[in-house]
Amino acid sequence: NADTALYRAKAQGRNNFQFYAVEMNAHAGERIALTGKLRRALKNDEFVLQFQPQVDIGSMQVVGAEALIRWHHPQMGLVPPAKFIPLAEETGIIVPIGEWVLRTACLQARAWLERGLPPVRMSVNLSACQFRKEGLAGLVARTVEACGLDPAFLELELTESMLMDDPNSAIATMRELKAVGVRLSLDDFGTGYSSLNRLKGFPIDALKIDRSFVRDITTDRTDAAITAAVVSLAHSLGLTVIAEGVEDAGQLECLRQHGCDEMQGYFFSRPLSAEPFAALLRAGAVCT
Ligand code: C2E
Ligand code: MG
Ligand code: MG
Ligand code: MG
């Protein structure tokens, strides 16, 4: 849909910025109204997190949770991130929203650990705004500390466009984050402009293959070949590879054959609220 297209345009960087800006100007009144609503939403505690399981392909055990924000609007219902994250980024409200996401995800991870559930990583999406802002590593360090969470359980998801804008300062920020002890992953890999060659310069732990490659992996030889190449290169750099958007058994089988480490997608589970996610973890633990 149009919102997704806008979001992608923005996410894909400067080349598309004009298109994005023109579209947004066409709805200036709506934008101002929405900005106010987002501010109130934060104050009124209207945001919630859902968690999508990340599964080890070898053992089929849940090894991670990706925190995904939703806006529980009193009238509009559950609003997906594509409808408000782009504007939140543009207006900078994403910064306090992002801090809320980080804190809430860390508290949740700690709560699951305390209940004796099998330990899983918690992945949090960072926005470009947050990543560029001075003091990110300090914020992350203080947050995990305040939540009583071992930073090794926290993974921050970055995107290629965040790294390619100014690779040197991005690398400096990533090194600071690594010094805090968190994991870093590269989200939506393959949709941006970074070359495979650039990857070796980034201190990342994992690479997430974008779902646009996974979608036709069983029928499109090019997508299958790209996936195979990405997996083997990533492994040679010591990175974990996770496939996004796995929707059926055929895709999973194909990824397994290509040596992909982990998967995430509707085939295993849609994003879940905290309690169903905990139940899933508990059920998994019983099986072993
Ligand atoms: P993402 O980080 O790439 O997250 C994966 C998206 O794919 C999620 O959409 C998820 O629900 C969806 N998905 C997972 N499995 C499947 C599948 O099998 N098929 C299909 N078609 N979709 C699948 P969601 O939750 O709507 O989030 C969209 C994007 O919004 C995220 O993409 C991320 O870029 C952004 N986002 C979500 N939460 C946050 C947040 O807390 N902070 C920031 N900055 N961005 C966020
Ligand atoms: Mg993500
Ligand atoms: Mg992604
Ligand atoms: Mg994506």
List the ions, cofactors and other small molecules found in this model: ligand C2E, magnesium ion
- Poorly predicted spans: 1-23
Order of helices and strands: HHHEEEHHEHHEHHEEHHEHEH
Oligomer: single chain
Could you give a short account of the major beta sheet?
A: 8 strands, mixed, barrel
Termini gap: 42 Å
Helix proportion: 40-55%
Strand content: 15-25%
Instruction: Return Rg in Å.
Output: 19 Å
Which structural class do the helices and strands define? alpha/beta
What spatial order of strands do you see in the largest sheet?
A: 1-2-4-5-6-7-8-9
Which word captures the global form?
globular
Q: Work out the number of β strands.
A: 9
Average pLDDT rating: 89
- What is the number of helical segments per DSSP (H or I, 4+ residues)? 13
Domain EAL: 31-285
Subcellular location: Membrane
Organism: Aromatoleum tolulyticum
Protein name: PAS domain S-box-containing protein/diguanylate cyclase (GGDEF) domain-containing protein
Report on this model:
With 288 residues, the chain is α/β, with parallel strands linked by helices. Helix content is 49%, strand content 18%. It has helices at residues 2-11, 17-25, 28-43, 85-91, 94-114, 128-132, 136-147, 160-164, 167-180, 211-214, 221-236, 249-257, 274-287; strands at 47-56, 62-73, 77-79, 121-125, 154-159, 183-189, 206-209, 240-243, 262-263. The chain has an 8-stranded mixed β-barrel, surrounded by 4 helices. Helix 1 packs across helix 2, helix 5 (94-114) packs parallel to helix 7 (136-147) and helix 7 packs parallel to helix 9. It is globular. Bound molecules: ligand C2E and magnesium ion (MG) (3 copies).
